[in-house]
């Protein structure tokens, strides 16, 4: 009898916890959250010598090295473990970017204007070179961020971060050496007003 009461009590407690978690998930998906999060894959479509778009008056830095354009596709993950299963969704974002020298050769200034899911933004930040010829020769690891501004209501700000592998192929989605997602998997977080 005691065993049955313990099992029933444990079962009820478990069901209560599950219902609380289910309510939390419903709240997140029902639009009552204070942020939007996007996980996207970038594809560099062009790299050119900087134009007037990369002027210091626009970017906040001198010595622009190159001007890039990117498109972004949503990343699909497996629900049970978060492993990426696809990086080839429809185009949902774009970025026009400038990169410039800094005193430290492992750092670059980063400026960009773009839109994600129809939401325009601008941002300033930097990129950090982490490793060369890693995970194999011809690939270089880096990370970048943009502090996002210029967002319209209800957004108050945001952050774009990247996990980047640069290969010998500067543009396109095919890495050299082959078999890697290039150049970046990015996370964009947009924060909303109350």
Brief sketch in words of this structure:
The protein is 16% helix and 48% strand. It contains 2 helices and 10 strands, in the order αβαβββββββββ.
Layout: helices, strands, pairs:
Elements: H1 2-29, E1 35-48, H2 56-59, E2 64-74, E3 76-77, E4 84-86, E5 93-101, E6 107-116, E7 119-132, E8 140-149, E9 155-166, E10 184-192
Antiparallel strand pairs: 1-2, 1-10, 2-5, 3-4, 5-6, 6-7, 7-8, 8-9, 9-10
Can you walk through the features of this model?
The chain has 194 residues and is an alpha+beta fold. The chain has 2 domains: 1-33; 36-192, no CATH class. It is 16% helix and 48% strand. The protein is built from 2 helices and 10 strands. It has an 8-stranded antiparallel β-barrel. A two-stranded antiparallel sheet has the order 3-4. It is globular. The chain starts with a helix and ends with a strand. The model is unreliable at 1-30 (pLDDT under 50).
Descriptors for this entry?
2 domains; 8-stranded antiparallel beta barrel; globular; 194 residues; alpha+beta; 2 helices
Structural class: alpha+beta
Helix content: 10-25%
| Beta-strand segment tally | 10
Distance between the termini: 52 Å
Q: How do the strands line up in the largest sheet?
A: 1-2-5-6-7-8-9-10
Shape summary: globular
Order of helices and strands: HEHEEEEEEEEE
Instruction: Give the number of helices.
Output: 2
Strand content: over 45%
Low-confidence stretches: 1-30
Roughly what is the average pLDDT, rounded to an integer?
Answer: 87
Largest sheet: 8 strands, antiparallel, barrel
Gyration radius, in Å: 22 Å
Q: Into how many domains do the coordinates divide? A: 2
């Amino acid at each position: 009898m005691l065993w049955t009461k313990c099992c029933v009590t444990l079962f009820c407690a478990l069901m209560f916890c599950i219902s609380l978690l289910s309510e939390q998930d419903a709240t997140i998906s029902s639009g009552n959250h204070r942020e939007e999060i996007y996980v996207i894959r970038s594809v560099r479509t062009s790299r050119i010598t900087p134009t007037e778009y990369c002027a210091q008056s626009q970017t906040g830095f001198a010595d622009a090295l190159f001007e890039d354009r990117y498109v972004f596709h949503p990343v699909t993950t497996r629900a049970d473990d978060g492993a990426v299963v696809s990086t080839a969704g429809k185009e949902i974002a774009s970025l026009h970017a400038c990169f410039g020298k800094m005193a430290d050769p492992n750092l670059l200034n980063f400026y960009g204007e773009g839109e994600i899911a129809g939401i325009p933004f601008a941002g300033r930040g930097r990129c950090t070179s982490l490793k060369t010829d890693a995970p194999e020769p011809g690939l270089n690891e880096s990370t970048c961020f943009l502090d996002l501004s210029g967002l319209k209501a209800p957004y108050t700000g945001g952050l774009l971060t990247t996990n980047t592998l640069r290969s010998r192929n500067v543009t396109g989605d095919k890495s050299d050496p082959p078999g890697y997602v290039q150049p970046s998997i990015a996370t964009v977080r947009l924060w909303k007003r109350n």
